[in-house]
Specification:
Its main location: membrane. Belongs to the transpeptidase family. It is found in: Membrane. The chain has two domains: 175 residues, Penicillin-binding protein 2a (Domain 2); 274 residues, DD-peptidase/beta-lactamase superfamily (Beta-lactamase, 3-Layer(aba) Sandwich). The chain has 21 helices and 23 strands. The chain is elongated.
């Protein structure tokens, strides 16, 4: 038999000379590459080490710091500061750097003690407690005067062994007058969010953009900085006059101390362009500490505050912070009567020589609606219907006009619509204004003397201004100019004339009628020695009528012939006097009018 194993055996192939040469060449080439690679590594790590180390390190950001922008100031019309931002500093320690050596520790602590009067033992205790930290806040809200000496020392060549001290910057909102015009100005929450007033409405204008400071090592392995400068906010110049505002608040405080009320407000404005000089409310608060419970004491007792839940307290603060002159609506009462007369004069329904007989009431369908003078005024003229504030005569006038004419002029005077004032939270109140198609005879009668519909103080004052300035309705506003952080004028906010409500002829007649109100009617307490004045008193019975509670008011102006100042006073539920005593509102208005005219250097009237 044939051996199969032998038949399957294959001869062993051996390398020939050519193959040996190729193998040796390949191995040698690979070995050479390794030698070159090792050589390059040695070259880069030994000979080029410093160059490449500098290049790499110069591209690495080791830290960055926010550079805060300064929020824009709020000024009054004369440039006095109402709100500003003060730069504050936070002392930050780096314990791990301070503890690098005994010498650094000693000299750093000595410097902090010498220039900032910080106790050495307390410092050492703090540093050791945070020994592994590179960032530990030691003290904040420091003024520049608190840190100036230490900063100067650190910048000198005597502080080589002082380490681990950093000052970060931020701005804190300051209100030099604390509670002055609080609801008009508003305050800032969380450092950047305006809450209420100008701070809220002009928040984006007052805000800026933060900058940034980067620290890194350059090619020379030296620390270098790169700075993106912050963009500061713009300055807002308001129409407010600080002295008139102080006067109005002083008069309110005197009234509240003597008589008390559920709430009282004063609005002072220029009737010729819509600029607001002052807005004062009995519920002002401290802008420096808006969330302090002490602010609530103007409206609540201490026991009421103590019993409030957090939710109730938040609601109470919101009530204090809002501006009732803009946000609250009420029945205006007899201050509306000149508007009813104006509609009749404009439409030719009234000529100015009419007389009316007041017997103390008017029958309107099933209703008997009384005049404020229960025994009746008797026979009176058109001007006396305003000066004596006769409800009966006004109801007769409204009946002559009819609901279509009456409703048309209510809308024309902008009642039921927002004025567009540059403040947040303006009341709409349109839902409480009757349309002609829905107005009943009783609605027409009561609306003629300012009941059965609502308005806000800013709506009334803006419309009233058009009655006495020749018939021009101006949009009310509290800001007149915007400036850059360097003081350059960015834009002027010019007065906006919205519409003409009545003719100059009608306006002149109404000024005459309302001057008579002060000379011989319901507003005689507004008489002044050096100025002629006009105005209209108001008494509105609150709902429910059965409660017997009232709002009294007076809208006055001077000089009567060429009004330069309008003052509107509203008092809700007088506490220590008759709630229908409009004379108290007139007295307050007179004092504010007199002081405002003096402050604005208005020439004295040529009284006859």
């Amino acid at each position: 038999m044939v051996d199969l194993k032998k038949r399957r055996r294959k001869p062993i192939r051996r390398l020939n000379n050519a193959m040996k040469k190729r193998t040796i060449f390949a191995c040698a080439f690979i070995a050479l590459l390794f030698v070159i690679l090792i050589g390059r590594l040695v070259y880069f790590s030994v000979f080029k080490n410093n160059i490449y180390k500098r290049q790499v390190l110069s591209q690495q950001n080791y830290s960055s710091e926010t550079l805060p922008y300064k929020r824009g100031d709020i000024l009054d019309r004369d440039g006095n500061i109402l709100a500003t931002s003060q730069k504050m500093y936070t002392l930050i320690l780096e314990p791990k750097n301070i503890l690098r050596s005994d010498k650094i520790q000693k000299e750093t602590i000595n410097a902090l003690h010498k220039y900032m009067k910080i106790d050495k033992d307390e410092l050492l205790k703090f540093i050791k407690k945070h020994k592994n930290s590179y960032y530990s806040v030691y003290k904040d809200e420091l003024a520049y005067s608190d840190i100036a000496d230490l900063k100067d020392f650190i910048a000198s060549d005597k502080a080589d062994n002082v380490s681990g001290i950093v000052f970060s910057e931020k701005y804190k909102r300051r209100y030099p007058n604390q509670s002055l015009a609080s609801q008009v100005i508003g305050f800032v929450s969380d450092g950047t969010i305006g809450t209420g007033g100008i701070e809220q409405y002009y928040n984006s204008t007052l805000s800026g953009v933060n900058g940034r400071k980067y620290k890194y090592l350059n090619e020379e392995l030296e620390q270098d900085n790169s700075i993106v400068e912050p963009e500061n906010g713009q300055t807002v110049v308001s129409t407010l006059d600080s002295n008139i505002q102080k006067l109005a608040e002083k008069e309110l405080a005197k009234f509240e101390k003597k008589y008390g009320s559920k709430g009282s407000s004063i609005l002072v404005m220029n009737p010729n362009n819509g600029e607001i000089y002052a807005m004062a409310n009995s519920t002002s608060y401290n802008l420096e500490s808006p969330r302090d419970d002490k602010n609530l004491l103007k409206k609540y007792s201490q026991s009421q505050i103590n019993n409030m839940s957090e939710k109730q307290k938040t609601k109470a603060f919101n009530e204090i912070w809002k501006n009732p002159i803009v946000s609250n609506a009420f029945e205006p009462g007899s201050t509306y009567k000149p508007f009813t007369v104006a509609a009749g004069l404009e439409e030719g329904i009234l000529k100015g020589n009419e007389t009316f007989y007041c017997d103390g009431y008017q029958k309107v369908g099933p209703h008997t609606i009384h005049c404020s003078h229960r025994n009746g005024h008797g026979l009176i003229t058109l001007s006396q219907s305003i000066s004596l504030s006769c409800n009966d005569a006004l109801m007769q006038i409204a009946e002559k006009e009819g609901k279509n004419v009456f409703a048309k002029y209510q809308r024309n005077f902008n009642f039921g619509k927002k004025t567009g004032i540059d403040l947040p939270g303006e009341a709409q109140t349109a839902s409480l204004l009757h349309d002609a198609k829905d107005m009943t005879a009783a609605d027409l009668a009561t609306s003629s003397f300012g009941q059965s519909f609502n308005c806000s103080m800013i709506q009334m004052a803006s419309a009233f201004s058009s009655l006495i300035n020749g018939g021009y309705y101006y949009k009310p506003h509290v800001v007149k100019q915007l400036r850059s952080s360097s003081g350059e004028v960015v834009s002027n906010i010019e007065p906006t004339m919205v519409k003409q409500t009545v003719s100059k002829e009608t306006s002149d007649k109404l000024k005459k009628y309302m001057k008579e109100t002060v000379e011989s009617g319901t507003g005689t307490k507004a008489k002044m020695k050096d100025y002629s004045a006009g105005g209209k008193t108001g008494t509105a019975q609150k709902i429910p009528r059965s409660a017997g509670t009232y709002i009294v008011s007076f809208c006055g102006f001077a000089p009567a012939e060429n009004p330069q100042v309008l003052v509107y006073v509203v008092i809700d539920e007088i506490q220590k006097e008759s709630q229908t005593n409009t004379g108290l509102a007139v007295e307050v208005a007179k004092n504010v009018l007199k002081g405002s005219l003096k402050e604005l250097n208005v020439p004295k009237s040529n009284k006859k």
